[in-house]
Amino acid sequence: MKKIGFVFLVFLCLFAKAQNALGPNLVLNPSFEDTSQCPLMINQLEFAVNWKNPSAESPDLFSSCSPEFWYGVHTPNNLAGYQIPKTGNNYAGIVAFAGGTNQKEYVEGKLSDTLIQDQEYYFSFYLSLAGRSAVASSNFGIKFLDTLYYENTLYQLSLTPDFESDFVIGDTIRWIEVSGKYTAHGGEKHFIIGIFRPDSLIDHDTIWVNPFGYASYYYIDDVSVQLLTDTTPNDPTPYYPAINLFPNPSTDGNFTLEYSFEQEGEIIIYDMLGQVVEKRFLPLGSHQWPLYYPNTAAGVYFYRVLEGEIERKAGRMVVGG
Known about the structure:
Jelly Rolls, Immunoglobulin-like, disordered N terminus, five-stranded antiparallel beta sheet, about 325 residues, mainly beta
């Protein structure tokens, strides 16, 4: 379920936490930088030191050291899309949804020390939807384990996650943080990240009609597990999922922006060079607001949606796709 990508130029981070409230990161090789050799093709996650594949599926490792060609695993440009690593030069990638087949991929990491019974830990990992994904998915979770885990399956693992998110991650430009707290039973040394539900119990948003398949693929970077001290970290800024631009691509420049705002806003359209093409006012309330660009040259553009002065979403829009 791998896909062909195209270029995105920017990435941002939506979330922050108070680092002085946390102990050191216990995740070994948290951003997949330490490798035994350079990945040259898909299915080579285990070239990242201390990372494993816990199932019969085939998660991927992407690296700037890989050859740059359209079906490769180079960063930032690769078969699944274009994304700059959040940290360093590498990231991992997994299939989250494969057209209702229940097939899923996971990554399994290792901690530098076992977790302490009844101690509370703060964990986080960052996801970005790959650009050629037709679907965005929800319910990404994490499972902590005492020992290395493997299950000979192509489908969701027979595990109940210790935490799972409750929002659809549809951003192809930003790295979106999934984070939470975990109270250890003691002895945990490994963890698995992925979606632990069947497709029928996952929320999905259709991003665009993709001739390569109705699927979602996510990049993963910057994984952390840290002991909480007496000072609690700031709660992460909530992700704002209630915005959808469709159809995307649009063959005639005719789009609809679906949103719900408590104050007036605007949408700003940029070309590939970052020049503003147009700004449009967005009234408050819940709307399906028409956006029509019949004279716009075919190509890839970027947009930002603001509620008041707060950016709620950014993404790409394709005219003539």
